[in-house]
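User: I'll paste a sequence; please echo it back and then give the predicted structure.

Assistant: Echoing your sequence first, then the prediction.
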Amino acid sequence: MAMILIMEPDARLGAKMCEVLIRAGHECRAAQTISDGLNLVNKGQRLLTLLNARLPWTDSYTFLHTLEEKGWPILFITGDAANADHLRAMYQGGCDVLVSPFDGKKLVSAVNELAAVSANTLSLGSLQLDLKRREATMDGQRLTLTAQEFALLQALMQSPDAALTREQLLRTAWGYQDVGETRTVDVHIQRLRRKLGATCIETVYKLGYRLRMA
């Protein structure tokens, strides 16, 4: 089951798609404008978004950038099959394109497939983690990470823009329950910075670290 946000200017069509997806076991919300969609996105719960490409692009760019920063998946809906590659190229993260007209079965299939892929993928800007294959890429280039570096990066990416303490990172990335020496976190952060870039992981004074991707 996924939480779905349908960005569809036609309220009747949006309601119909919601009905189909709810019957398939998903939770669903609908918005007719980009501003309404942003309000739902900013509430914090992870969403898989269906975005009709007919919505105004001047507003949609801001919306897409917000989703990219969160690493949330998006399914573009378009009536022009020739536009599919262009839409995919616009979004750095989990995405796909559904060409209309389509029936309920095709809609559910596209949503389920993207949800399944996204469940095994973490994305933040140009940085992606494939949790199933245990692979990391940045700007399309594979990163060479140790198992512990991968686990630490995964912990940071699961809470993007959040300041995490060294103790939290030890529990999440190392599985420690009895937290003592935290120096090992600092050592592995320095190693990640050398591989990701010095500005990608921010030191939060007297607290810990925060992952930030442009």
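The first strand starts at residue 3 and ends at 7. The chain has a mean pLDDT of 89.
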